[in-house]
Known about the structure:
0% of the residues lie in helices and 62% in strands.
Amino acid sequence: MYEHFFQCPYCWEEISFLLDASVRQQTYVEDCEVCCNPIEVTAKFENEELVLFDVNELGQ
């Protein structure tokens, strides 16, 4: 697992998500641990290194 820190697009707090580096490209929804709003996460790995990470707000 790969832990990635970033700012929540809703509350701007620094949070982290655990990403599975064995899945080359992934898009999923996870709630912010601070404000509980849903965040769409897109991550891409090459040779188990994170090469793309993007988050988007959902439904607001």
